[in-house]
Design brief:
By secondary structure, the protein is of the alpha/beta class. The chain has 11 helices and 10 strands. Bound molecules: zinc ion.
Length: about 270
């Protein structure tokens, strides 16, 4: 009990003096871990016998959906990417959700889906004003402290990386400007969509897994042996749908070829 009366550094000395060698080794191992925190975008080595699955969930933070999805991904120990929208980050609780996504790399990657979600879903206007739209992405990057230059366009399936551009908005000046400034844009191969106006997934877990297997077998994904799945946090608000997400991942995990990765490791994004 005497230690509590010592100043900070003296207390640490007393504490270290009372540690065994084994304790000290652990302290050192923990410091190395802290220093060696992985950096998003560091290339991974691909195994051609595997199938890489990129779960990319849009419009976070949208609790309770975002929290449910995070919990399911964590329980199942799979990696996922959240394309976040600064406009949705209202109040301290939602800020903490974004902070947790940012701090949980390598399990989760926080990426950019624009600040205003394309001027509040006014996509025609958004894509007709490339400078304002560009600034909207920059504002989002700053407000959410997004550490990677990876973007998903609101309401649009376009891909861009190092001057290779394809998709619906390939000719749009906004895409060219983002690309010229080193941003990479990710579309999707398949969406786990919304059931009409209801906040719930349209397909069952089994149906989605069937579609994914079919697409891999057809070889019709944008990149070989890799699939980008788009969905939205808000579809998994209710317990039964969070359970469905859990079931979806369990089914995919039954196939030993399947590997879950964050989108910074997508082949197109790793190419020099
Ligand atoms: Zn969106």
């Amino acid at each position: 009990m005497r230690n509590i009366f010592l100043s900070g550094s003296a207390a640490i000395l007393v504490l270290l003096a009372s540690c065994s060698n084994a304790d000290l080794k652990k302290v050192n191992a923990d410091s190395v871990k802290l220093i060696a925190k992985p950096i998003p975008g560091t290339p991974i080595k691909y195994d051609s016998s595997k199938r890489y699955i990129f779960l990319t969930w849009d419009d976070s933070p949208q609790p309770p959906g975002t929290v449910n999805c995070k919990n399911v991904f964590r329980e199942q120990n799979v990696k996922a990417t959240f394309f976040a929208v600064g406009f949705n980050q209202v109040g301290p609780f939602k800020k903490r959700i974004i902070d947790s996504l940012r701090n949980d790399y390598p399990q989760f990657l926080l990426a950019n889906h624009s600040f205003s979600h394309g001027f509040n879903d006014k996509y025609a206007k958004f894509y007709s004003l490339p400078d304002s739209a560009y600034n909207d992405f920059m504002k989002n990057e700053k407000e959410l402290q997004i550490g990677v230059k990876i973007i998903r366009l609101p309401g649009n399936n376009t891909w861009a990386s190092k001057a290779v551009i394809h998709g619906q908005k390939a000719e749009n000046p906004l895409i060219k400007k983002l690309d010229a400034n080193g941003y990479q844009i990710v579309g999707w191969d398949m969406e786990w969509g919304q059931n009409g106006k209801q906040k719930q997934p349209k397909e069952s877990a089994t149906e989605m897994v069937k579609r994914i297997n079919q697409k891999f077998e057809d070889g019709s994904t944008v990149e070989q042996n890799a699939i980008v799945i788009l969905s939205h946090d808000r579809l998994f608000e209710k317990k039964q749908f969070a359970d469905s997400l859990s079931r979806f991942i369990q089914l995919l995990k039954q196939d030993p070829r399947n590997v879950f990765e964050t989108i910074d490791h997508y082949p197109m994004l790793q190419r020099k």
